[in-house]
Structures are given as C-alpha cells and as structure tokens.
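Researcher: Let's do a round of design. I'm pasting the structure tokens now; please hold your answer until I've finished.
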C-alpha cells in the first residue's frame, strides 16, 4: 500500500526516482532506466534543466523542427517549431512555400498593452472612494517607481491606473484596473510586483483618509494579479493574392477553391463546434513557436480562446473574403510574448530559436507567431476543402505507426514508398506491414 510521503522535495534526485519507481510503477528497475536514459550527458546542462522547476526527475523531449521559407514583410524567416504532432511542421512549410511566390505574409501590431488588477472590497460610499482614489493616484505611481524605473528608461512602464466599480457584478467589489507597457518582456513579474505595491499603498492610504468613516478606512484587498486576457496586445497577419493565382490544386478551379475557403471560414465563424477545431489547428502553429521560444503557452492559450469568444459566442480567429478578384485571408490574435527574461537567456535551445528568428523584439515575435497560426489554418483548410485531412495527415503519421510496429529501416523504406500511392489508414498500414513480413 502506498502511504503519503513527507519531505519529498528534500530528497536527492536519485531517491526521488527510486521512490516514484518503487511505489508507482510495475517494473521499478525498467522505470529507473528510462528516467535516467533521458538525462543529458553534460552534467551542468542537466543541472540547469533540473532547476527550471521543482522535483525534476528527468527531461521530457519534444521534437524541435524548422519550417523554412516564410516571407514576412519582405524578410525571409525559418521558423522553429516544437510540437509532438506529425504533419504540423510539414503543413507550415507547405503554406510558407505557397505564399512565398504570392507576396508572402503581411503583418502589423495593433496594440501592446497589458492589464492587471488589484481586486478589493470596499463597504462604503463610492463617491468618497472616487475622491480618495483621485487623491492617491500620484502616490500610487510614485510608490512603484523603484520597480518601474528601468522599464520607464526603456520607454515602458505604467500607462494608467483606473478605479472600477464592479458592484453590479458583485457586492462591494471594486478594482484598480492598471494598464502596462512591458516592451520586450512578457512582463508577468513586473506587472505583479507593481500591483502588489499598488495594493499596499491603497490599504495604507485608506487608513488615514479624512473623509472615510472607520469602516471605509478598512479597504480589503482580496488579490493583486495580472490578467492573461490581453485584448489590447494584439497582432494582425494577412495573405492575399488574385483568385486566379490560387491554382495549386488540380481538383478545383481557383475561384471554386477560393469560395470554398471563404465558406470554410464562414462555417467556423458561425458554428462553435467547428470553430474550436478550426482554432485548435491555428494553435498547432502558434503553440509550436511559443514553445520553441520559451514563452508561456498556457497564458497564450487562455488569452486566445477568451478573444475568440469576445463577441459572446466562440468563433473563428481567422477571416477570409474575396473582393474584386482578390482572395484575402487574415488573423487577429492576442499574444503576450517575451523575448527577454524568463527562459530566453537560460535555455540554450530557446536562445538558439530566437537567434534563428533574427533576435526579434516581442512585437516582432508576435508577428511571426501570428503568421505561424495563419499558415497552419490555411494548410488545414486547403486540405479540408480539397483532398480531406487524412490523406496528408496519415502520410505524415505513417512513420509513427511503422515505429510502433517495430519496422526495420528497410521495411520502412518499402512501406513509405508503397503508401505514396495508397491511403495510409492505421489498419492498411498494419496489413501492409504484416504482408511484408508474411504474417496472416
Ligand atoms: C489537427 O491537429 C488540426 C485540424 O483538425 C484543424 C482543422 O480542422 O482546421 C486539421
């Protein structure tokens, strides 16, 4: 029987591994072997990774791939992508190549501001609270100067602090709603530090505000935290070309193809069941670049899906139209990213990914990530409205199935060649593999 363990975090790595393998796995010796197999041979590099999180046992590999030939605002990029799903990198590369000869991707930043709130309870007269807020606003900003001075020097800092009455939603609930410019930093630590200082100033100043009653002087801060909802930190990426140049697919005439693409987007606009899958495909591209560059993909996911539902129904993040013979396909995305701080200087592969991307600023990285999302969506829709997704997807997945079956290199070569002309469903691959080995 497994019993709770005390002081697990204080055990050595070897003891932690031993404990988990013995208590939770069927074959402890084999489990220990697997965990250790993924250790890096370079002890210093391993230690660096061990210290990123707590209770580290080993490393969890994800492939790091490259999608080349992305022409973005007339500059050529090769985009690093970290993802476990086959066919995503191939799809991105295919889209990049397709748009390379059609003017490439055009991007622009819509906004770069982020928000955070001090959430507090005030039991009293709102007018007096407003008076109080006006009287302390400059003190609020002044008290955070030790935290903001470097950011301000570089052109960022606090953009505004507002008092918000939220009592219609929740009794006695108010906020300091704060707006920040964090430049190339994702800014979570900066924003949270500022907010915690705002909270201190707010509660301290309330205690001696002359017009407040005794009860009003007790401003109760519940919490101070950044918001991952970033509707004012957004980017746009677009591709367009004359309809008659959309001639890559022999099964459809260019105009029919363009109209089907527009229709596919319209369906994702109208139908949440489709919109979720449509946007998931976009996030295949977005997350892969976010991960490769060491950014917080949970924050990005949360923000993107909130944005997709901003009009009250979950809807497509991409748009498409045909106007005067021009097919235009675009995306608007909220993206809170950083190219300094966090893992960017610590993780050697993150550093390298940023170098491959020509050391972008955070706004430049936003544009690259949005392009990866748009490219992914274009590739997915192109397959969906023509051949169907499985043809390409299963071709890419073929190697995974063959590896699962334990195919040798020469068997793989034979079967990959065979499935160039056949549909690679799972059972078709198993049958062909068994046929090759003369199994019934
Ligand atoms: C698969 O990972 C993503 C797709 O389902 C996206 C889509 O349906 O648009 C292909």
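Researcher: That's everything. Go ahead.
Model: Designed sequence:
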């Amino acid at each position: 029987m497994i019993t709770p363990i005390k002081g697990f975090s204080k055990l050595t790595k070897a003891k932690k591994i031993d404990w988990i393998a013995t208590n939770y796995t069927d074959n402890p010796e084999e489990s220990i072997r697997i965990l250790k197999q993924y250790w890096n041979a370079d002890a210093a590099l391993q230690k660096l990774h061990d210290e990123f999180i707590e209770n580290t046992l080993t490393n969890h590999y994800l492939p790091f791939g490259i999608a080349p030939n992305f022409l973005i605002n007339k500059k050529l990029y090769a985009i690093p992508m970290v993802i476990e799903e086959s066919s995503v990198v191939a799809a991105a590369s295919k889209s990049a190549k397709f748009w390379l000869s059609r003017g490439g991707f055009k991007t622009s930043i819509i906004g770069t501001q982020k928000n955070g709130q001090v959430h507090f309870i005030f039991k009293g007269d709102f007018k007096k609270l407003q008076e109080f807020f006006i009287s302390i606003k400059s003190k609020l900003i002044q008290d955070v100067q030790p935290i903001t001075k470097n950011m301000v020097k570089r052109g960022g800092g606090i953009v505004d602090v507002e008092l918000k009455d939220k009592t219609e939603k929740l009794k006695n609930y108010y906020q300091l709603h704060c707006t920040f410019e964090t430049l190339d930093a994702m800014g979570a630590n900066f924003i949270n530090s500022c907010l915690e200082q705002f909270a201190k100033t707010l509660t301290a100043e309330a205690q001696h505000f002359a017009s407040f009653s005794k009860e009003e002087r007790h401003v109760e801060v519940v919490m101070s935290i950044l918001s991952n909802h970033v509707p004012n930190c957004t980017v746009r990426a677009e591709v367009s070309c004359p309809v008659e140049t959309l001639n890559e697919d022999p099964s459809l005439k260019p105009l029919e193809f363009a109209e089907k693409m527009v229709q596919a987007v319209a369906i994702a606009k109208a139908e949440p069941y489709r919109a979720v899958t449509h946007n998931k495909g976009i996030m295949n591209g977005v997350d892969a670049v976010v991960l490769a560059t060491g950014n917080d993909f949970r924050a990005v996911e949360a923000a993107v899906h909130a944005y997709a539902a901003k009009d009250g129904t979950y809807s497509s993040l991409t748009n498409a139209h045909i106007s005067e013979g021009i097919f235009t396909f675009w995306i608007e995305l909220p993206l809170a990213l950083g190219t300094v701080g966090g893992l960017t200087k610590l993780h050697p592969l993150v550093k390298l990914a940023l170098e491959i991307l020509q050391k972008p600023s955070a706004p430049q990285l936003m544009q690259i990530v949005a392009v990866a999302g748009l490219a992914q969506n274009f590739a997915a829709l192109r397959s969906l409205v023509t051949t169907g997704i499985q043809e390409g997807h299963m071709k890419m997945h073929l190697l995974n199935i063959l590896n699962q079956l334990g195919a040798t290199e020469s068997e793989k070569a034979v079967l990959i060649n065979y499935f160039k002309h056949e549909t690679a469903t799972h059972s078709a691959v198993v049958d062909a593999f068994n046929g090759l080995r003369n199994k019934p």
